[in-house]
Amino acid sequence: MLEQIKQLAHDQFEQVIEWRRYLHRHPELSQQEYGTMRYVADRLREMGLQPREGVGGTGVMAMIRGAIEPDSYCVALRADYDALPLKECTGLPFASENEGVMHACGHDMHTSSLLGAARILTKLKDQMRGSVMLIFEPSEEMYPGGARMMMDDGLFNEVMPNEIYAFHCLPEMDYGRIGMRKGKYMASTDELYWTVKGQGGHGATPHRSIDPILIASHIVVALQQIVSRNASPMMPTTLSFGKINGNGRTNIIPDEVKMEGIIRTFDEEWRLQCHEKIRRISCGIAEAMGGECDLFIDYGYPYVFNDDRCTQQVHDHAVEYVGADNVEWLEMRMTAEDFAFFAQKIPACYYRIGIHTPGTPFSNLHRPDLMVDERSIELASGFIAYNALSALMKGTRE
Asked: Same structural domain for residues 212 and 309?
């Protein structure tokens, strides 16, 4: 089966690259992926499948039912397909044609790879025991996240998968390599929005004002104690500010300051404690300095937890597919993923596939110059299919 899948992935490589380049040229923002949804659904129909469109707004789901006991076991495979509001500067001949929107997180690679895996699996379904659920998820980059939206829309009403898998491309990892981690892997994430209110006035008479910029500055500094003095040294926690806007002038103290940031960690109880500490410190400082503070906490994604058994399977299958020298155990990451919602319901593994061409400059995710070594798409298509079929074989034997 291994060599057969590798050959199928190789034989269809040009077709899958064509799909990827189309998706890269036509990126769409979160909750606006109507063209992407139709394109993906059309490709699935060409494979003889019957996709369900509009799941969670702009998502797609399809089932590949094996010829042998299709209802006995189900493995789900997920890819995301929304893009980011960035102006592309790669210079690629298939660069984005949608001004100011780019697949800068590799979601075009994820989606084309899953389409390639689906094509392989449909060709092998006569040998398949059980079924595979294909999930093409919208809006991973925007709260509340496509995973939750699709589940709320009945994604699993008819079939509840026994296992679920997804991967994300990793620019820090060279092409040809696969990585994974058991247990806690990616952080929870919550967005924080402050409005610090004072009383504006002339910059030359600050004693007649209540300066919200000064209050906001004290809040920013004081909140650093949450990570440095309140969080356990054994509990990864990140609190970052990304935006502070006072809209005053050199000689104008504004009436209010707006700030935005994030809090990320790996424990649900501590996560809630962080929220309370942030609120008490922020509002307490503002009140003590004569102002007010309104804080809105947008409760986001939980942390990603990889099931031990599923992750060990991915590891073992990766060793078989690319060799032990090209497989690595990964460290925890403070990045976040709404795949966590799936992993809360179903035994899951979220793993990584390298996309960096050795010897070329490095560019990170969410950068306008992100480049993908397209050979990684052939590897991903084949490995997704191999891992799914191997998981089905083990699941249906148990």
From this structure: no
Q: Which residues pair with 134 in a beta bridge?
A: 62, 77
Partners of 305 in beta bridges:
184
Query: Is residue 81 domain-shared with residue 150, that is, in the same domain?
Result: yes
**Alpha-carbon span 378 to 382, nearest angstrom:** 6
Distance of CA 36 to the CA centre of its chain: 17
**What is the band of 398 on the pLDDT scale with cuts at 50, 70, 90?**
low
Residue 27 in tokens: 């990126």
The span from the CA of 294 to the CA of 279, in Å, is 9
Reduce the DSSP state of residue 395 to 3 states and report it: helix
Distances (CA, A) of 357 to 43, 171, 361, 368: 28, 9, 8, 17
How large is the average pLDDT for residues 211-223?
98
Query: Which residue range forms the structural domain that includes residue 293?
Result: 188-298
Dihedrals phi, psi of 132, to nearest 5 degrees: -120, 130
Nearest alpha-carbon partner for 353 in 378, 335, 331: 378
DSSP letter string, 282-326: HHHHHHHTT-EEEEEEE-----EEE-HHHHHHHHHHHHHHH-GGG
3-state secondary structure of 167: strand
Token pair, residue 47, equals 């494979």
3-state DSSP call for residue 265? strand
Greatest pairwise CA separation for the chain in angstroms: 81
The residues, ordered by sequence, that sit 6+ positions from 374 with a Cβ below 8 Å of its Cβ are: 17, 20
Domain of residue 257, CATH code: 3.30.70.360
Beta bridge partners of 295: 194
Residue 396 pLDDT level (bands cut at 50, 70, 90)? confident
Task: State which of 260, 277, 298 marks the end of a domain.
Answer: 298
Specify the pTM.
0.93
- Other CB atoms within a 10 A radius of the CB of residue 129 amount to 17
Q: What was the pLDDT predicted at 395? A: 83
Q: Residues 304-332: pLDDT tens digits?
A: 999 999 999 999 999 999 999 999 999 99
pLDDT tens per residue across span 153-176: 999 999 999 999 999 999 999 999
pLDDT tens-place string over residues 226-257: 999 999 999 999 999 999 999 999 999 999 99
Structure tokens at 292: 């007010």
